[in-house]
Design brief:
The chain is of the alpha+beta class. It is built from 16 helices and 16 strands. The chain is elongated and about 90 Å long. The chain starts with 14 loop residues before the first helix and ends with a helix. Bound molecules: adenosine-5'-triphosphate and magnesium ion.
Length: 430
Amino acid sequence: MGSIQVSRGTRDILPEEVIYWQHVEATARQLLHQAAYRELRTPIFEQTHLFERGIGEATDVVGKEMYTFKDRGDRSITLRPEGTAGAVRSFIENKLYAQGGVQRLWYIGPMFRYERPQAGRQRQFHQIGLECLGSTDARADVEAIAIASQLLKSLGVPEWTLSLNSLGTSEDRQKYRAALVNYLNQYKDDLDPDSQDRLQRNPLRILDSKDPETKEIAQSAPNILDYLGPDSKQHFDQVQQLLTDLDIAYTLNPCLVRGLDYYTHTAFEFELDELGNQATVCGGGRYDRLVAELGGPETPAVGWAIGMERLILLLQKAEIALNQSLDFYCVARGVEAKAQALLICQNLRKNGFSVEMDLSGSAFGKQLKRADRSGAVACLILGDTEACDRTLQLKWLQSGEQETLPQADLNTQTNQLQHQIAAIRSKIST
Ligand code: ATP
Ligand code: MG
């Protein structure tokens, strides 16, 4: 029988790559904390109905991408395809609105969509997202955008494009939709089949088509910005002004409509041009209607989600180096030395150092070679002599310098060791 492989569209994230994930997660956590966002953890599956209502039946996500199944109690369950619907359900169910003011929430975790897998597009993928609930202020939109932009900057992403649009209120959009359908109907036969299909169900989505001929038709379509009412226009002007004040560059893109139904006013996407076809790394916008739509009190909101796979692909491509090397690698030969080695390693860990103990049982020479390859800053060596004297050899792996130390020094000279290791690390990284 052949060996079993991972399911199509899913993948293992191996330890070398996990370093990148941890780095992105830690950076995001820190920035979100600084911006007073608090983490929310919601279930990975929800009632199918939540997504049908919260995302919209006319969207690709609900129409053809959901992992939906009946559980053993005959309930229709869906693996979450995105995080906003669950966050809003939780906001309503737990009456977070009763705390008053604005709720700033963020989440991280796997999402599931049945799509054709390719680089940067999977069936299980991961998002970090935030939702700011309870404010109509344009500063809420811009704060959210600024956090995403700061995250990319902090991660060392060299360049990106921020596309910006406004979808106005539902009323603005109704008017625009009529004008758009009117325009597109003239070219009905030239549209790609998917777009022809969308003409009645979700015509705005046609603007977002990847088909070249449809794209060209969309270029001359009526511009949604011409259909904004005075309030929508004022909000959008403010967003643009505040972005300029913060020195955040953007490009207006009237074809940016986003896939999900619940957006109002500001819509935005961050694109990393180097990623080719799957370039959108972050998408978001305002969704003032969703909370009420899902049965909560009228609550304006704005949010975004970052696709972690795409972001990490870029970091790896850009060869942004991450250092997670060990402090020590410990090798030992002989029964007594091996026992002492374990004790030494545990004490070092108690003192805050990272240590790998060689467990291979191979000859000293092989153990030392493994120490060289381990990436550790220093190697601790214990043989019979050292075991007998209660000493050890400390070898600095970069320079090859070696010294004999009393084992007790590792406990008493913690600060000095930390400084030495830090100094070597900073020399290596420059
Ligand atoms: P796309 O147009 O690429 O399908 P989308 O509009 O469906 O994206 P959103 O629902 O806005 O995507 O999700 C936010 C982000 O999550 C995307 O910008 C992307 O980075 C990431 N993402 C979405 N779907 C996938 C997927 N199947 N695999 C990997 N990342 C994804
Ligand atoms: Mg999609």
